[in-house]
Write a structure and sequence with these properties.
single chain, 44 residues, mainly alpha, 0% strand
């Protein structure tokens, strides 16, 4: 697979998400798990 022109931008956003502990979903299964998690609605 070849790199896309926006590949650098996507990687930068993912690095920021890791840095600030922001959950990210890169596929539908992960998105469903995050949204349905009881922790999604709790405040910390």
């Amino acid at each position: 697979l070849e790199s896309q022109p926006h590949d650098v931008d996507v990687k930068a956003v993912l690095r920021l998400a890791v840095l600030y502990n922001i959950p990210t979903a890169c596929n539908r299964a992960t998105a469903d798990m995050i949204i349905s998690s009881p922790l999604f609605n709790s405040s910390h």
